[in-house]
Design brief:
- There is one protein chain.
- The N and C termini lie far apart (61 Å).
- The protein is of the alpha+beta class.
- It is built from 19 helices and 22 strands.
- The strands form 5 sheets. Strands 1, 2, 6, 7, 8, 9 and 20 form a 7-stranded mixed sheet that branches. The chain has a 6-stranded antiparallel sheet with strand order 14-15-16-17-13-18, with no helix packed on it.
- It binds flavin-adenine dinucleotide (FAD).
- The site of flavin-adenine dinucleotide (FAD) has 37 residues, from helix 1, strand 2, strand 12 and helix 9.
């Protein structure tokens, strides 16, 4: 007998990193939301590395926070070590990374979902999508009932037809011993979705007391800079901060791998999925970098109340007996005891080029996809997509236009544009090198770029908005104040500059312009500025970055204006590319297949050349003129 369990605005399938952000955003924008998970113990589960952030990923977390998302707040509550990566390099690649207490991360996020009005968390497995006349109307749960909805967001991670591999052994499973979701894929196939198999892997977790840490390099945390802008400048209650350790594999451990490569699930040909290039297994590393006699291994505690240690850098799909043998050849791990073996997991993902940049399906109206199911890899990448899918699904059911972030506005824009324009055949990881405007899109200014928008759409609270206004106005006021302080080329001033290791000035110059000199800083220049008030570190950081990189940023702004010129050139979805003379056949096929939303996006489709874009622009201009003439003739 058919029965309806819930009739709601939005159903989110998955309470992982994507699902949590999606459900929270949609509920906070006023939609009624049901969030499903095959197991509520998997809410915001960190199935792999116990950390949030890092190169490129830290930028995503800051952008999620600037838009009113949850990940930044959740990791600030549960972090047990904070580090800034690339701190010695330019601000474009500065990346915050925090070690998390995994259990607390899960509990805090689950608590937030449970306490969010309009959001209903439910343990059930989605087994079939319900569609009428090309529109989503809900789904069927394994529990037997239906969930009716005006929009559905799939954020199923690594669970769809999940299969775990450890050498010759493999079996259906989700990550970390969770059950796999084996039925929903067929429903997607029946609806015409192209499914691809992907794979990822994780290392073993070993018992802390079985490790000999003597002789290892200690990795201490740095200043506890918060991820959330809402915590900047606030006294925060911090969890005890821990140390990580650095050790190395040995030639002996590499020999064990080489001798047993034939027993890895990859070598046995059991795994068909494509793995992440930037998170290679130890087997891949030994094979690809055969000349290296050791690889770095980071030992990262999984939490404060567990002895489990995550062995970063040694993920594997070798059999467990071989894993034990090779782990015990790693310095300090000679007597290590496994608590969880390493494994690879294969799962289903869709071809994301069948999505709009709103993450809505092009084929099923009201169906959205976010996270690993789109071919990305990483908690942060998933959360960023979840946030945008949640915002856009809520706006869809409220009859509003979707929010699209483009490549010049946010790393989130780069992530989604790469996935839906180019697609991916391997798990896609965000990196600063993927972002052409990275000097403008820094982690330190995510709020200055995005919080106004987050407030406009109703996701950023008044309190957060006030915090942002304070930072923005304080930064602008201080820059203005410094620009009005003139330093004259007197002997006295030049002596001071000499003491600061800087060249004398010949003409009067503002204090702000003087700060542009690499050897000078806001701190150093206080000798010329006795009236200054105490300012928050983050505001000073903004003032300094803006003036020191002014030239580069202005140059990039010019590039962005050129980019926007083509990005804002919309393309009708029903444009007949086969009718455009002069376009190459490959371009016709690709353009017709992906149906880009703008000329800019058309130019990023692989197989479409700049010459094709010129042909397209001429065609559009001719068409516009003809329609104009026809219009004025009538
Ligand atoms: C073994 C392993 C290794 C990894 N290695 C890396 C790595 O090296 N680097 C990296 O960046 N990332 C890695 N990850 C990836 C990282 O864990 C994911 O990118 C991230 O968790 C994806 O988030 P998500 O929200 O898309 O999915 P998940 O966090 O996997 O959450 C999926 C959610 O969907 C639910 N669900 C699934 N199907 C259904 C259904 N039919 N009905 C109801 N609920 C459903 C699940 O219960 C779960 O709540 C790894 C993951 C695993 C499992």
């Amino acid at each position: 007998m058919e029965y309806i369990i819930k009739d709601t605005d939005i159903v989110v399938v998955g309470a992982g990193h994507a699902g949590c952000e999606a459900a929270l955003a949609a509920a906070r924008l006023g939609a009624s939301v049901v969030c499903l998970s095959v197991n509520l113990n998997a809410v915001a589960a960190m199935n792999c590395n116990p950390n949030i952030g890092g190169t490129g990923k830290g930028h995503l977390v800051r952008e999620i926070d600037a838009l009113g998302g949850e990940m930044g707040l959740n990791i600030d509550k549960t972090s047990i070590q904070t580090r800034i990566l690339n701190g010695s390099k330019g601000p474009a690649v500065h990346s915050l990374r925090m070690q998390a207490d995994k259990r607390r991360y899960h509990e805090e996020m689950k608590k937030t979902l449970e306490n969010t009005p309009g959001l209903h968390l439910m343990q059930d497995e989605a087994v079939e999508l319900l569609v009428e006349e090309g529109k989503i109307v809900g789904l069927r749960g394994r529990s037997g009932g239906k969930y009716l909805a005006k929009a559905v967001i799939l954020a199923t991670g690594t669970y769809l037809r999940g299969r775990v591999f450890m050498g010759e052994v493999n079996y259906p499973s989700g990550p970390d011993g969770m059950q796999a979701a084996n039925e929903l894929t067929q429903s997607l196939v029946d609806l015409g979705f192209e499914i691809q198999r992907m794979k990822t892997g994780t290392p073993a977790r070993i018992h802390r007391d079985s490790i000999d840490f003597t002789g290892m390099e200690i990795q201490k945390g740095g200043p506890t800079v918060p991820f959330s802008f809402r915590n900047i400048g606030l006294e925060r209650e911090m969890l005890p901060q821990i140390e990580c350790h650095l050790t190395f594999t040995t030639p002996e451990s590499h020999d064990i791998i080489r001798r047993n490569m034939h027993r890895s699930a990859m070598a046995l040909g059991d795994i068909e999925g494509t793995g992440p290039r930037y998170c290679p297994s130890i087997e891949d590393k030994v094979r690809r970098f055969a000349d290296r006699d050791r690889h770095q291994v980071f030992l990262e505690p999984e939490g404060l109340t567990t002895k489990e240690i995550y062995v970063q850098g040694v993920s594997s799909s070798l059999p467990v007996d071989v894993q034990l043998e090779l782990y015990r050849k790693i310095e300090g791990l000679e007597h290590c005891e496994f608590m969880r073996p390493a494994y690879a997991i294969e799962y289903d993902a869709i071809d994301a080029t069948r999505l709009y940049r709103s993450l809505e399906s092009r084929d099923i109206e009201g169906l959205y996809m976010a996270g690993q199911i789109n071919g990305s890899s990483g908690y942060e990448e998933a959360a960023a997509q979840g946030l945008m899918a949640g915002i856009n699904a809520a706006r869809k059911v409220q009859g509003k236009e979707p929010i699209i972030l483009d490549r010049s506005e946010a790393y989130i824009g780069v992530l989604i544009d790469d996935l839906v324009t180019k697609g991916t055949r391997e798990p896609y990881r965000m990196m600063t090198s993927r972002c052409e405007y990275r000097l403008t899109l820094r982690q330190d200014n995510a709020d200055l770029r995005l919080t106004e928008l987050g407030h406009e759409i109703g996701l950023v609270s008044e309190e957060q908005y006030e915090g942002y206004r304070y930072r923005k106005e304080a930064m602008e006021a201080e820059s203005l104040r410094l620009s009005k302080i003139q330093i004259n080329p007197t002997d006295g001033n030049n002596e001071i500059l000499a003491e600061l290791g800087s060249a004398p000035i010949k003409n009067a110059i503002s204090l702000l312009d003087l700060m542009q000199r690499p050897e000078l800083s806001y701190e150093k220049l206080k000798v010329f500025d006795p009236q200054r008030q105490e300012l928050r570190e983050d505001v000073v950081e903004q003032v300094e970055i803006q003036v020191k990189y002014r030239g580069y940023i202005e140059k990039q702004q010019a590039q962005i204006r050129e980019y926007k010129r083509l990005e804002d050139r919309r393309l009708p979805e029903d444009l007949d590319y086969y009718a455009i003379e002069g376009l190459r056949n490959e371009a016709k096929e690709k353009l017709a297949d992906i149906a880009p939303e703008s000329v800019g996006q058309a130019g990023r489709i692989s197989g479409v050349s700049p010459a094709d874009i010129n042909v397209l622009l001429i065609y559009l201009e001719t068409k516009r003129r003809r329609e104009h003439e026809l219009g004025s003739a009538q």
